Protein backbone atom coordinates (compact mmCIF):
# COMPACT_ATOMS: atom_id res chain seq x y z
CA UNK A 1 0.00 0.00 0.00
CA UNK A 2 2.71 2.58 0.80
CA UNK A 3 4.37 1.93 -2.57
CA UNK A 4 1.02 2.36 -4.35
CA UNK A 5 0.24 5.57 -2.48
CA UNK A 6 3.72 6.93 -3.22
CA UNK A 7 3.35 6.02 -6.88
CA UNK A 8 -0.07 7.66 -6.95
CA UNK A 9 1.37 10.90 -5.53
CA UNK A 10 4.13 10.92 -8.16
CA UNK A 11 1.62 10.30 -10.95
CA UNK A 12 -0.62 13.08 -9.64
CA UNK A 13 2.26 15.53 -9.58
CA UNK A 14 4.19 14.64 -12.74
CA UNK A 15 1.75 13.04 -15.18
CA UNK A 16 -1.12 15.41 -14.61
CA UNK A 17 -2.38 16.91 -17.88
CA UNK A 18 -1.50 20.63 -17.60
CA UNK A 19 -4.84 21.75 -19.04
CA UNK A 20 -6.93 19.60 -16.65
CA UNK A 21 -8.70 21.42 -13.83
CA UNK A 22 -8.67 19.90 -10.37
CA UNK A 23 -12.46 19.23 -10.28
CA UNK A 24 -12.37 17.63 -13.75
CA UNK A 25 -9.45 15.42 -12.78
CA UNK A 26 -11.12 14.40 -9.50
CA UNK A 27 -14.31 13.53 -11.37
CA UNK A 28 -12.37 11.51 -13.94
CA UNK A 29 -10.51 9.58 -11.24
CA UNK A 30 -13.76 8.73 -9.45
CA UNK A 31 -15.45 7.64 -12.69
CA UNK A 32 -12.43 5.50 -13.61
CA UNK A 33 -12.52 3.84 -10.18
CA UNK A 34 -16.25 3.17 -10.55
CA UNK A 35 -15.70 1.69 -14.02
CA UNK A 36 -13.10 -0.69 -12.57
CA UNK A 37 -15.12 -1.69 -9.49
CA UNK A 38 -18.55 -2.01 -11.16
CA UNK A 39 -17.86 -5.18 -13.21
CA UNK A 40 -16.12 -6.77 -10.22
CA UNK A 41 -19.16 -6.01 -8.05
CA UNK A 42 -21.58 -7.43 -10.63
CA UNK A 43 -19.44 -10.56 -11.10
CA UNK A 44 -19.06 -11.29 -7.40
CA UNK A 45 -22.12 -9.92 -5.61
CA UNK A 46 -24.55 -9.21 -8.41
CA UNK A 47 -26.17 -5.90 -9.14
CA UNK A 48 -27.48 -4.40 -5.93
CA UNK A 49 -28.91 -1.01 -5.12
CA UNK A 50 -28.88 1.06 -2.00
CA UNK A 51 -32.42 2.48 -2.19
CA UNK A 52 -33.73 -0.06 0.31
CA UNK A 53 -31.28 1.04 3.01
CA UNK A 54 -32.50 2.91 6.11
CA UNK A 55 -32.12 6.69 6.25
CA UNK A 56 -29.19 6.48 8.66
CA UNK A 57 -27.25 4.31 6.22
CA UNK A 58 -28.02 6.66 3.33
CA UNK A 59 -26.89 9.58 5.47
CA UNK A 60 -23.63 7.79 6.25
CA UNK A 61 -23.18 7.07 2.55
CA UNK A 62 -23.73 10.75 1.72
CA UNK A 63 -21.15 11.85 4.33
CA UNK A 64 -18.62 9.28 3.11
CA UNK A 65 -19.13 10.43 -0.46
CA UNK A 66 -18.75 14.09 0.49
CA UNK A 67 -15.56 13.41 2.45
CA UNK A 68 -14.08 11.48 -0.50
CA UNK A 69 -14.88 14.33 -2.88
CA UNK A 70 -13.22 16.87 -0.59
CA UNK A 71 -10.22 14.59 -0.04
CA UNK A 72 -9.66 14.07 -3.77
CA UNK A 73 -9.98 17.78 -4.49
CA UNK A 74 -7.52 18.69 -1.73
CA UNK A 75 -4.94 16.04 -2.68
CA UNK A 76 -5.06 16.94 -6.36
CA UNK A 77 -4.78 20.66 -5.70
CA UNK A 78 -1.94 20.25 -3.19
CA UNK A 79 -0.10 17.98 -5.65
CA UNK A 80 -0.53 20.60 -8.36
CA UNK A 81 0.64 23.49 -6.21
CA UNK A 82 3.27 21.97 -3.95
CA UNK A 83 4.30 18.58 -5.35
CA UNK A 84 4.01 14.95 -4.32
CA UNK A 85 5.71 15.16 -0.93
CA UNK A 86 3.26 17.73 0.37
CA UNK A 87 0.35 15.83 -1.20
CA UNK A 88 1.40 12.70 0.69
CA UNK A 89 1.05 14.56 3.97
CA UNK A 90 -2.73 14.64 3.52
CA UNK A 91 -2.68 11.03 4.72
CA UNK A 92 -1.61 12.24 8.16
CA UNK A 93 -4.48 14.71 8.23
CA UNK A 94 -7.03 12.08 7.18
CA UNK A 95 -6.05 9.66 9.96
CA UNK A 96 -5.94 12.36 12.64
CA UNK A 97 -9.26 13.83 11.46
CA UNK A 98 -10.89 10.40 11.62
CA UNK A 99 -9.93 10.00 15.27
CA UNK A 100 -10.91 13.54 16.15
CA UNK A 101 -14.29 13.30 14.37
CA UNK A 102 -15.01 10.05 16.21
CA UNK A 103 -14.22 11.84 19.45
CA UNK A 104 -16.23 14.97 18.60
CA UNK A 105 -19.26 13.44 16.88
CA UNK A 106 -19.65 10.06 18.54
CA UNK A 107 -18.10 10.78 21.94
CA UNK A 108 -15.69 7.90 21.49
CA UNK A 109 -13.04 7.62 24.13
CA UNK A 110 -9.62 7.66 22.58
CA UNK A 111 -7.11 5.53 24.43
CA UNK A 112 -3.65 6.66 25.43
CA UNK A 113 -2.34 4.53 22.55
CA UNK A 114 -4.29 6.61 20.04
CA UNK A 115 -3.05 9.89 21.52
CA UNK A 116 0.53 8.57 21.51
CA UNK A 117 0.16 7.43 17.91
CA UNK A 118 -1.22 10.83 16.90
CA UNK A 119 1.66 12.54 18.70
CA UNK A 120 4.22 10.32 16.99
CA UNK A 121 2.55 10.94 13.65
CA UNK A 122 2.64 14.71 14.14
CA UNK A 123 6.27 14.56 15.27
CA UNK A 124 7.14 12.59 12.13
CA UNK A 125 5.32 15.15 10.02
CA UNK A 126 7.21 17.99 11.71
CA UNK A 127 10.54 16.23 11.13
CA UNK A 128 9.73 15.58 7.48
CA UNK A 129 8.76 19.22 7.03
CA UNK A 130 11.95 20.42 8.74
CA UNK A 131 14.01 18.12 6.52
CA UNK A 132 12.34 19.46 3.38
CA UNK A 133 12.97 23.04 4.46
CA UNK A 134 16.63 22.28 5.18
CA UNK A 135 17.05 20.59 1.79
CA UNK A 136 15.46 23.61 0.08
CA UNK A 137 17.79 26.02 1.92
CA UNK A 138 20.84 23.93 1.02
CA UNK A 139 19.71 23.72 -2.61
CA UNK A 140 19.25 27.50 -2.74
CA UNK A 141 22.73 28.05 -1.29
CA UNK A 142 24.32 25.45 -3.56
CA UNK A 143 25.36 23.33 -0.55
CA UNK A 144 25.31 19.58 -1.30
CA UNK A 145 22.65 17.70 0.64
CA UNK A 146 24.01 15.31 3.27
CA UNK A 147 22.93 11.69 3.14
Plain-language structure description:
The chain is an all-alpha fold. The chain is built from six helices and no strands. Helix 2 packs across helix 3. The longest helix is centred in the C-terminal third of the chain and has 30 residues.
Brief descriptors of the model:
147 residues, 79% helix, 6 helices, mainly alpha
pLDDT under 50 segments (min length 5)?
Answer: none
Give the termini separation.
26 Å
The structure class reads: mainly alpha
Helicity range = over 70%
Major sheet, described briefly? none
Let me know the number of strands: 0
Shape: flat
Beta-strand content estimate: under 5%
How many distinct helices?
6
User: Could you spell the SSE succession in H and E letters?
Assistant: HHHHHH
What radius of gyration results from the CA coordinates?
A: 19 Å
Mean pLDDT: 84
Secondary structure layout:
Layout: H1 2-14, H2 22-44, H3 55-82, H4 84-88, H5 90-106, H6 112-141
Helix pairs in contact: 2-3
In short:
The mean pLDDT is 84. The chain is mostly helical and 147 residues long.
Amino acid sequence: VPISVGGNNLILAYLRPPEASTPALACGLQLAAAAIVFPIMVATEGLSGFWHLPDAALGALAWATASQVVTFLVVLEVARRAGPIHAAQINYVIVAAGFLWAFALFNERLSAWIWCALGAMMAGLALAHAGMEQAQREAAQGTPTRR
